[in-house]
Write a structure and sequence with these properties.
globular; 3-stranded antiparallel beta sheet
Length: 384
């Protein structure tokens, strides 16, 4: 959509935006403060948003803080990505009852309300695009994901105050939303007041924007929005050098850094659980002792568990070293071969929520340091 279609709304317009989406039948899911973190829940009005709340993040560190302004989007990210709504951690995929014949997939709930995702940051927007490609654009379509994704309305937000673990600028995924949204907001607070520059990205977005009381975008508004993006880009907490990254990972399977990180990694799978692009799953079968109903559930899994790569005779990746190497190499290298994109969007959640404060950007940087001859060791068969 052309920039000329953009408009400026005030806080009352933001309130009305939520009202319009709810009136049109969308369940508006937005950021709220929950148990000391920013989480996502259905919101009824602008009053449910975390106004005046910011956050501080670093390796194994997350705290909310009070801001000195009334920003509605002054935080960065919580542990929960939008994946938990579109690709839930536990989902029924097949049910069989005695006497009913072959097991069949459950019917999708016809009353399932379409979702309006409110306050999506650019990195998470890119993560949703990754799942769209992986789960709906290949031969085998994930019907459960597709049913939830269909009709979704996305209100994206430009990130103004990156956290200490953010590196989306390095990955080319932020901080400003550029595609994949219906409406994109940039929050502006200055001597001209508290307002939002709104850019539509789809015809649906244009239709909704036309229902809001708005003002014409002035040159000062464009300059202020550009300054927000420039400032956020300039003070990312982390940086990842992506030059020749795929080749770097492919050519260093025996680098001693893998042993170093394995000595610190707990293989707890926190990084994969908070990652907005991970989609590894397993299945669980359960049979009711009451009526004999047998259910099959799809549940999130992680390549950090020993059972994930288990085949007859044992696990393919039996050590923490081999599992961390698999995860990092898959994210940053083999995803390009499989899906034509990176598996990392630079959100930094894996750094914040790692209890050992392992920093993916630092581990990759260490791979660029050529090891000395006396640090190289031959891999054992069980590691590879």
């Amino acid at each position: 959509m052309a920039l000329e279609q953009a408009a400026v709304i005030d806080v009352a317009g933001l309130r009305l935006l939520i009202d319009v989406l709810r009136a049109d039948g969308w369940a508006v899911i937005g950021p709220t403060v929950q148990d000391g973190v920013i989480g996502q829940a259905e919101i009824q009005s602008v009053d449910d948003l975390p106004r005046g709340v910011g956050d501080e993040q670093d390796g194994a560190f997350y705290r909310l803080r009070a801001r000195d302004d009334a920003a509605y989007f002054g935080y960065v990210l919580g542990p929960q990505s939008w994946k938990s709504l579109l690709f839930p951690s536990r989902e029924l995929v097949r049910r069989a009852r005695p006497g009913d014949g072959p097991a069949t997939p459950p019917e999708h709930d016809p009353e399932l309300r379409p979702l309006a995702l409110f306050g999506v940051r650019s990195c998470d927007l890119q993560a949703i695009a990754v799942h769209d490609r992986v789960l709906t654009s290949r031969v085998a379509v994930d019907s459960h994901y597709a049913a939830r994704r269909e009709g979704t309305f996305i209100v994206a937000v430009t990130c103004a105050d990156p956290a200490g673990t953010c590196f989306c600028a390095s990955m080319g995924t932020g901080p400003e939303p550029t595609e994949g949204f219906d409406l994109a907001l940039t929050e502006l607070l200055d001597d001209r007041g508290h307002r939002f520059l709104v850019r539509p990205g789809t015809d649906k977005g244009v239709a909704v924007l036309e229902l809001l009381p708005s003002q014409t975008v002035q040159g000062a508004d464009r300059a202020a929005a550009a300054a927000v993006v420039e400032s956020a880009t300039g003070h990312m907490g982390r940086e990842l050098d992506t030059s020749q990254l795929r080749d770097l990972l492919y050519s260093n399977p025996d680098h001693p850094q893998w042993d170093d990180v394995a000595s610190r990694c707990l293989a707890c799978s926190n990084c994969t659980l908070v990652c907005p692009t991970c989609f590894c799953t397993s299945v669980e079968d359960a049979t009711s002792l009451v009526d004999g109903t047998s259910d099959r559930w799809r549940v999130w899994d992680s390549c950090f568990t020993s059972d994930f790569s288990y085949v007859h005779g044992g696990s393919v990746r039996g050590t923490t070293k081999s599992r961390y190497r698999q995860w990092a190499t898959h994210k940053l290298a083999t995803w390009w071969d499989q899906f034509g994109t990176s598996g990392c969007v630079g959100c930094g959640r894996c750094i914040t929520w790692c209890p050992a404060a392992i920093d993916l950007t630092a581990e990759v940087a260490a791979l660029r340091v050529t090891p000395s001859a006396d640090t190289l060791t031959a891999p054992t068969p069980q590691e590879d």
